[in-house]
Each structure stands twice: as C-alpha cells, then as structure tokens.
C-alpha cells in the first residue's frame, strides 16, 4: 500500500495533517492514510563529553542508580535505556574533537586534509535512511542545530578542518548536509513549497537574512485556513479534536517564533543611547533557541513531514557561553578541560545536566502527544549522546549514550543494556536502520546487528 496523507495546500504552502482515524480527505485529492503511525528516528548530539562518574551508574538491568547527569530524566526512567560499551574505533588517538563528530553516526575513518577536499569516511545513518526511505515523506530528513559552521584548520588539534566537526549529517564522505540554525527557517522547511536555502553558513544576523525573514511573516494556517475548515467538518469528533490540537500547536510555535524575533523592552538610559533589543534571526535566549528547535522537530515528526532528524546541540568543540546558568562562568569546551579541579568540574557538570534537562523536555513533549494507541514517543527512537566519554581526557571508549522510545514495540526501555566491551557503535546503527525498514549486511565498522534491545 502506498503511503498517503491529508495535504492542505495554499499559495506557497503544503502542510501535512496528523494521522486521522476516520480517513477523511481534503478537496485537493488528499492521500490515503497509513494504517498505523510510522516509526521515527531522532539523533541528538551533545559535544564535549560527560563527567563519567556522574553518568555511569551502579547496578544492572532495571535496577540501577540514577546518577547526577541522569537526574533530570528520573521521571522518564521507564522511557529510555542506557547503552554501554559502544565506541567508534576509527576515532581513537587522532584528535580530541573534530574527526569524532562525523564518525558518531557513520563509524568512518576521517581523513586529515587541508579543508578543500573533506573526507568524513562514510555516510551517516540518518542520511542512509533519507536516501532509502526519504521519498515517503515531504522532507527526506531534517537537520537542525545551534552553532554556525566554523572554517579553517584546527592547527592546535591535529590539523583537521573545523568543518568536519560542524556537521553531524553526511550524504557521502565528501558531502556534509547543512543544518538549519534559524528557528523560523527550520519551521518554514516543514510547510512551505518556496523554501529558502539552508543558511547555516550565512550570518543569521545579517541585514539580508533579517530582511528576508521580516518580509515573509504570513501564517501557514492563514494560507490553508479554508481547506483546514473543510477537512475538520468531514472528520469524526476524535479527528476534530486532534486537528484542533494540531492547528493550535502550529499556531503556538508560530507565536513563539514571532515573539522571539521582536525587539524586547529593556531599560533605557537617559539620553540618546537606547538599549532596546534589536530584531534578531536567532533568539537571544539559548534555552528558547534549543526548545524552539526541539518543538519544530517534534512537529515535523507529528505531521509526518519527515521521519528522520538530527539535532546538533553544539559543534565538535562548542564554546557556547553558559554563564546564564547559576554558578557557571565560562564556555562549554573550556570548562570541559577542568583538570579535575572541583570548582571547574562542577561548572562543567552543570552544563551537561542542563543538556539532559532539555532532553527531558523533548521526551516529555513526545510522550504527552497521543498518537493512535500510544504516544509519539512510543512510535519513535531517540538517540542521545556524545562522541567522547570524558570531555577532560578525550576518552573514546564506552560512549555516553541513551536510547529513548519504544520503536513501535521493538524496543524495551527502562533498562541498562551492557554490550561487550568495544562493541562497534555501528552495530546499533544497523539495528536502528533495520527497525526503520532498511536492512543492510554491514555499516561502517559494524560486526553485526546489536541485539538485546527488545
């Protein structure tokens, strides 16, 4: 059976509706619906590793301690599994950060080049899926992030191009897939036919970009309102309630996008030196930026606009300043090299805890979205982790990883899963691809399909 969904169309807009029980179709020849919600895969990358003592718990199976880094996820304990002893052997002893990022989802051997001839060593798992099943959805995949790509060669870190650590997704060893870092543009990718090119390599604060954003501020729902009303009238009471929730969700994201771009009222000194916050392409609040991107990814999954997404919370050596956190004075990468100084390490730990708190936000949001007989989280696989076990010592073995969701019944969360030591991370990628309907004999440096997940 071919997959078909309701599509609401308007000038420059194509918006997919959520899965509906009654199978009503719009006047534009809506599409045949799936008999059950599809499976989605999200891969969230956190840079700069963790403090191992605050990540790895004591105990086995379902009986393990919640460590400080996992404390924000304690209420979601039954929704994820801890994965241990996975690694990418091709990243060992080469560089602390840059070549480890593309290998995180590919297992490839990243070449040291001058930058003009990038070679990431492989295609990442998300792009393998996009190439194989991406035709089933309006977007083959969605790549989002927070940091603009860096240029040049990291001469202090082994001579690798910084671009290697600026992209998580690779269509092939030579081709990184640009991530969108501007919330409004990421949102527009979901619904608008007239899509701007991804601007991860362009200054989102530039006058050209800001002017473009301000000129095109029409609501997606305003464009398709008439079709939306017609579709709602044909649906069951359950469908009507679901559509109302869906449309309000779209509105809510749009309102937050709009609010984040408007000038904010601030204290103004006497005289002619105003301190009004200028209109910006990216929210000033890093928390708002991250959560907006997470909301957009959830919306992309819920509307079945894509089933594959990556979110790069920071580049390989992210130096984002987290001084907005209590007790933290400095940037992520700088504090990751704490040299076991308790005061410095405590600040580093606080940044990691902040990241797992954002993951909890995402998982709760997905868990609370009803879909079919379960939730969006039940019908998803959410991989979260880093390319380093220890940010201070650049340890590559036993990566800090967790996998959330039930994978349409193929995963059994709520456990600590220990693989044999030095098991290829790519064994897990094979298992994830298999669940997404793509069966491969091998991937990267895999030695087999990861077992024991269900």
Verbal overview:
- The chain has helices at 100-104, 125-133, 183-191, 207-215, 220-234, 237-261, 286-302, 332-336, 342-367, 425-435, and strands at residues 7-10, 13-16, 40-45, 59-60, 63-64, 80-87, 142-145, 153-154, 160-161, 170-172, 175-176, 308-312, 370-371, 374-375, 380-385, 401-404, 416-424.
- It has 454 residues and is an alpha/beta fold.
- The protein has two domains: 1-31 and 222-265 and 275-281, no CATH class; 36-204 and 295-435, 3-Layer(aba) Sandwich (Alkaline Phosphatase, subunit A).
- The radius of gyration is 22 Å and the shape is globular.
- Mean pLDDT is 80; it is low at 25-30, 198-202 and 262-280.
- A hairpin with a 5-residue loop joins β8 (153-154) and β9.
- Strands 7-12-3-15-16-6-17 form a seven-stranded mixed beta sheet, with helices on both faces. A two-stranded antiparallel sheet has the order 1-2.
- The protein is 29% helix and 15% strand.
- It is built from ten helices and 17 strands.
Task: Please describe the topology of this protein.
Blueprint: E1 7-10, E2 13-16, E3 40-45, E4 59-60, E5 63-64, E6 80-87, H1 100-104, H2 125-133, E7 142-145, E8 153-154, E9 160-161, E10 170-172, E11 175-176, H3 183-191, H4 207-215, H5 220-234, H6 237-261, H7 286-302, E12 308-312, H8 332-336, H9 342-367, E13 370-371, E14 374-375, E15 380-385, E16 401-404, E17 416-424, H10 425-435
Parallel strand pairs: 3-12, 3-15, 6-17, 7-12
Antiparallel strand pairs: 1-2, 4-5, 6-16, 8-9, 10-11, 13-14, 15-16
């Amino acid at each position: 059976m071919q997959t078909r969904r309701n599509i609401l169309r308007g000038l420059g807009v194509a918006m997919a509706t959520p899965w509906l029980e009654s199978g009503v179709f719009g006047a534009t020849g809506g599409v045949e619906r799936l008999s059950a919600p599809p499976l989605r895969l999200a891969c969230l990358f956190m840079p700069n590793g963790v403090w191992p003592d605050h990540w790895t718990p004591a105990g086995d199976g379902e009986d393990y301690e919640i460590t400080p880094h996992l404390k924000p996820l304690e209420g979601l304990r039954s929704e994820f599994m801890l994965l241990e002893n996975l690694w990418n052997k091709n990243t060992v002893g080469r560089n602390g950060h840059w070549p480890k990022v593309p290998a995180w989802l590919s297992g490839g051997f990243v070449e040291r080049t001058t930058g003009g001839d990038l070679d990431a060593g492989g295609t990442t798992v998300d792009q393998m899926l996009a190439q194989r099943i991406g035709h089933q959805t309006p977007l083959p995949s969605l790549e989002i992030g927070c940091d603009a790509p860096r240029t040049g060669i990291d001469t202090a870190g082994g001579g690798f191009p910084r671009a290697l650590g600026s992209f998580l997704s690779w269509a092939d060893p030579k081709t990184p897939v640009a991530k969108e870092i501007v919330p409004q543009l990421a949102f527009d990718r979901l619904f608008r036919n007239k899509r701007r090119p991804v601007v991860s390599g362009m200054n989102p604060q530039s006058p050209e970009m800001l002017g473009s954003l301000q000129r095109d501020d029409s609501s997606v729902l305003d464009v398709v309102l008439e079709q939306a009303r017609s579709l709602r009238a044909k649906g069951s009471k359950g469908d009507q309630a679901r559509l109302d929730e869906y449309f309000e969700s779209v509105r809510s994201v749009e309102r937050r996008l709009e609010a984040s771009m408007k000038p904010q009222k601030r204290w103004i000194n006497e005289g002619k030196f105003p301190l009004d916050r200028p209109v910006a392409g990216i929210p000033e609040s890093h928390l708002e930026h991250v959560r907006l991107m997470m909301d957009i990814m959830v919306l992309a999954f819920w509307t079945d606009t894509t089933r594959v997404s990556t979110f790069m919370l920071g580049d390989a050596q992210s130096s984002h300043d987290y001084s907005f956190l209590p007790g933290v004075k400095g940037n992520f990468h700088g504090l990751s090299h704490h040299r076991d100084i308790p005061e410095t390490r405590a600040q580093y730990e606080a940044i990691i805890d902040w990241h797992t708190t954002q993951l909890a936000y995402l998982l709760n949001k997905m868990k609370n979205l009803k879909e079919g007989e379960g939730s969006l989280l039940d019908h998803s696989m959410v991989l979260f982790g880093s390319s380093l076990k220890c940010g201070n010592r650049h340890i590559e073995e036993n990566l800090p990883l967790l996998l959330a969701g039930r994978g349409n019944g193929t995963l059994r969360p709520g456990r600590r899963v220990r693989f044999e030591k030095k098991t290829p991370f790519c064994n897990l990628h094979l298992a994830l691809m298999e669940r997404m309907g793509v069966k491969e004999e091998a991937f990267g440096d895999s030695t087999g399909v990861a077992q024991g997940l269900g």
